[in-house]
Specification:
Blueprint (H helix, E strand, L loop, with lengths): L1 E9 L3 E5 L2 E12 L6 E7 L1 H6 L6 E13 L2 E13 L31
Length: about 120
């Protein structure tokens, strides 16, 4: 599965000890593009953090894997990144939203136009 968006927040690196040795994890908040942008928390583990070197405000395309697990009758879902591609910053991944412009001022007085009302 893939997700595209802009990195809007980088959370601190977490480290710990597991049965396979020391691990580290860094989470990023990605904002997707589109009419209704979504924020998604994704995680990079161990060597992937150094390999991809993601930074704030970068446009990225991430290949992700979803995994859920149960703990104390509650379910938790992880979004793990296994591949990251930085998108060309010159491309407009977030097209500008149209501005609402105020009506243009005409030299004509109100009521002198071609409108039937």
């Amino acid at each position: 599965m893939e997700i595209e968006g802009k990195i809007i927040k980088m959370l601190p690196i977490q480290t710990g000890e597991g049965k396979n040795g020391t691990w580290k994890k860094q989470e990023y908040i990605i904002e997707t593009k589109g009419q209704f942008p979504k924020k998604v928390c994704v995680a990079l583990w161990s060597e992937k953090i150094d390999q991809f070197q993601l930074a704030m405000n970068e446009q990225v395309k991430l290949s992700i894997e979803l995994e859920s697990r149960e703990f104390n009758n509650r379910w938790y879902t992880d979004v793990q990144v296994w591949k990251a591609e930085k998108l060309n910053s010159s491309s407009d991944a977030y097209p500008p939203q149209p501005d609402i412009l105020p009506p243009s001022s005409n030299d004509e007085a109100p009521g002198n136009g071609d409108l039937p009302f």
